[in-house]
Write a structure and sequence with these properties.
This protein is mainly α. It has helices at residues 16-19, 35-58, 67-74, 80-89, 98-110, 125-160, 169-178, 181-195, 215-251, 255-262, 267-279, 281-292, 299-304, 310-320, 323-351, 353-359, and strands at residues 116-117, 123-124. Keywords: Membrane, Transmembrane, Transmembrane helix, Transport.
């Protein structure tokens, strides 16, 4: 019998472009759900939420006066008994300590009761915020997404073609971003509304219109919102483009980009699958913050264009010392920022596994 020689099976080394970079799919061992990472993030954001709610309660009460004092200054025929009853209804009862009021506030908050707004005729705060929230989210949210998309894609292309004429877009957009927003908004109104008459001067829709899902009303909303959207995009485009362009210049010097080009991969694949995918990671965190602060709105924008959003609502509530409305708006803004950051952490961990491995 002749001995059978063992056969040696050669296994090719894995392609570093397929498994060795953060821009591609990781191995199955590392793709399991990072429960420890998620639990740590959830605990951190729950503690942050409690701290924000606590500050949200005590901070307005450090101001001089309250909503009842403001109301009594405008209505001098209110009896002292009615004023005391009004304070008790608003949670401002002087017979209770701040800690007792804080406990009552948390109990109402857990039931979803944000109180009533004296500024808006004793309407529930949830109802007041719900009527203003869609305008801010629709306008500022759409403008933020558009500016992020244009700035990120444009910055990736400018960084890829560094040294070309496209580099001139960066200083132009950066210069526009340095102009104060109120000045840019007033200039846009003077040129495009007053002189050219292309857009309305302000408001969310025309006089005499009532909110309803009709083609005429939707057209009015789009027409009135076009100029504020364009102004926000122009004012914020420079930051997105500059940040993405600088990250592209850093990523393009990495070894895996050179290896991909040496293997003869198409430029579009190297640009979008490897370079841009890694360069966009820092942009995601900034975008999450922007998405979170969308709910807060742009107070200056809403003042310049007389837009009925949450930003203007918060300003009016602060001037009137309407604690319940102030706390409700701050709470909604805080929740939106925390949720946006949590989603950004998850997206960041998905795109860059090193993040969850390090923190877990």
């Amino acid at each position: 019998m002749t001995a059978v020689e063992p056969q040696i099976i050669e296994v090719a080394d894995p392609d570093p472009l397929e498994v060795g970079t953060t821009a591609t799919t990781v191995s199955a061992k590392r793709s399991r759900v990072p429960w420890r990472f998620l639990a740590g993030r959830a605990a951190f954001y729950l503690f942050t939420l409690w701290a924000a709610v606590t500050i949200n309660f005590f901070l307005p009460r450090m101001m001089r006066g309250d909503a009842v004092d403001q109301y009594l200054a405008r209505n001098r025929n209110v009896s002292p008994e009615a004023a005391d009853a009004l304070r008790a209804l608003l949670g401002l009862d002087t017979d209770k300590t701040l800690l007792q009021q804080y406990g009552d506030y948390l109990a109402l908050l857990l039931r979803g009761d944000l109180g009533i707004s004296l500024l808006h005729g004793m309407r529930p705060v949830t109802e007041v915020i719900s009527s203003a929230l869609p305008w801010t989210v629709g306008l500022v949210g759409f403008a933020t997404v558009v500016s992020f998309a244009i700035g990120t894609i444009g910055g990736a292309i400018v960084g890829w073609r560094r040294g070309s004429r496209l580099d001139s877009l960066v200083p132009i957009t950066t210069f526009l971003s340095t102009i104060p927003y109120f000045w840019l908004g007033l200039l846009a109104i003077a040129v495009f509304s007053v002189n050219l008459g292309w857009f309305p001067i302000g408001k969310a829709y025309g006089v005499g219109m009532s909110p309803e899902w009709t083609p005429e009303f939707v057209g009015q909303v789009i027409h009135h919102g076009a100029l504020p959207v364009i102004t926000i995009v122009v004012a914020s485009l420079g930051g997105w483009m500059l940040g993405m362009r600088n990250m592209m210049l850093t990523v393009l010097d990495e070894d895996y980009i050179m290896v991909a080009q040496a293997k003869g991969m198409p430029n579009n694949r190297v640009l979008w699958r490897y370079a841009a995918r890694n360069a966009v990671l820092p942009q995601i965190q900034s975008f999450a913050l922007s998405i979170g602060f969308i709910v807060g709105g742009t107070i200056v924008m809403e003042m310049v264009f007389s837009y009925p959003g949450v930003g203007k609502l918060l300003l009016d509530a602060t001037n009137a010392k309407d604690y319940a409305l102030m706390q409700g708006v701050f709470l909604v803004i805080t929740l939106s920022v925390l949720i946006a950051n949590l989603l950004a952490d998850l997206a960041y961990a998905f795109l860059d596994p090193r993040t969850r491995q390090t923190e877990a």
